[in-house]
Structure formats: C-alpha cells, structure tokens
Amino acid sequence: GRSPGLAFVHFDATSSADRVVEKGMHQVQGKWVEVRKAVRDNKTGPVVPVSAGPTGRPRASSPRSVREEMLREREARRQTATKRNRQSSSSSSSSSSSSKKKKRKRKTNKNRRSRSASTLSSSAPRFNKVAEELRQEPPAANPEVEKAKHEALNRLVALKTVEPSEARMKEWRALLREWHPDKNPQRVEIATAVFQFLQKGKSMLESG
Predict the structure, then answer these.
(1) Helix or strand (DSSP H, E) at 138
(2) CB-CB contact of 29 with 7 (8 Å)
(3) Nearest to 26, CA basis, from 58, 64, 2, 61
(4) pTM for this entry
(5) Phi–psi pair at 33, nearest 5 degrees
C-alpha cells in the first residue's frame, strides 16, 4: 500500500551502469528492486520488470504482465479482507441472536412464575374459607370417623401445593378412590363419612 521508494546510484563508467540496467532486478537487503537508467533530458530508460523463473531467480517479463499480477494480488487481498469482515459480522450477529433468545426465555419464565404466584395469591381467600368450613363441621359421634376426617383434611391442604391444577385434581381423585365405600367393606361407616368429606373439599382445590 505504500509508495515505492526512489534512490540514485552514480557510476564512474557508463559500461558499469549499462550492465546493471541489463540485469533488470537486483536484490538489496532481502528485497528485489527495479533498476532504471536516468538521463539528463528527464526521460527514464526502459522498465525491466521481472517474474520468478523455474529456479526461483528473477527473469524478465513485460510491463503489462507485471501490472496484471499486481492487480490480481490487490484483488485477492481485498477479497480476503471482505471475507474476514463477513465472518466477523456473522459471528457477532449469531452471538446477538443467541443473547436475545436467552433474554426472551428468561422473561417468559419470569412471567409464568408471576402468573402462578398471582393465581395462588388470588385463590388463597377461597381456599381458607373452604378449609375453615370443613374444620367447623359438627364432630362425628364415632371418634374413628373424626380422626379419619382430620387426616383427610390435612391431605387436602397438602394437595393445594401441587402444580399444575390437573396434577392436583388427579391426586384428589386418587384419594377419593382410596376412601370409596366399595373399597372399604370392613369400615363402610368411616369410609362413607370421609368420602363425602373429601367431595366437599373439591372446591377448595379447584379454586386455584
């Protein structure tokens, strides 16, 4: 990308200068430099560009081919730079998209938890009211019936924490089957009382 440097070398003999110009290119400090002959009328001598020969040593080539090679190299560098920029842009875009998806997911989860907490909060008064009504039922004459109803109420209260509501009602139906009179032929009286008690508690679970 930098402009080529320019230097002048003076020779004592014209023949020495001619030999240097005929060789075309010279290697100076590891770099190949182009040699031209300077004349008094400000006209330069013929350009002697070179290209690499089979042995790696420079050989003469036309000015047009050298210019074309330079243009090809410049275009190759431009395409390489463009490709790198696109890859960098694509990587940045992918990272940004992934970050946005994570933020949306966290926001969705937060909204779900908020709705769940709101539902539980709004259903609390109804739940407490039904639970209090069940506790204030007249005590049964049979102590075993009263004890079974007390245990059933504790299980209803525990079921209130089960989420979602479909799973909660499934657990309630399983509890209801457990106390069905047909499944308790040895204690029909207790099972019937608890079965009816659990049916009253259904509204306490459905309110959430």
Answers:
(1) none
(2) no
(3) 58
(4) 0.39
(5) -120, 145
Distance between CA atoms of 33 and 49, rounded to whole angstroms?
10
Inter-residue contact 152 to 176 (CB < 8 Å)? no
* Nearest alpha-carbon partner for 31 in 9, 55, 53, 58: 58
Decide if 38 contacts 51 (C-beta within 8 A).
no
What are the pLDDT digits (tens) for 63-77?
A: 566 667 778 888 898
Write the pLDDT tens digit of every residue in 24-38.
677 777 777 777 777
Size (the chain), residues: 208
Q: Which residue has the tokens 């875009």?
A: 93
Cα–Cα distance between 115 and 204 in angstroms, integer?
19
Q: CA-CA distance, 198 to 202, in Å (whole number)?
A: 7
Q: Quick one: DSSP state of residue 137?
A: S
Check: CB of residue 58 under 8 Å from CB of residue 32.
Answer: yes
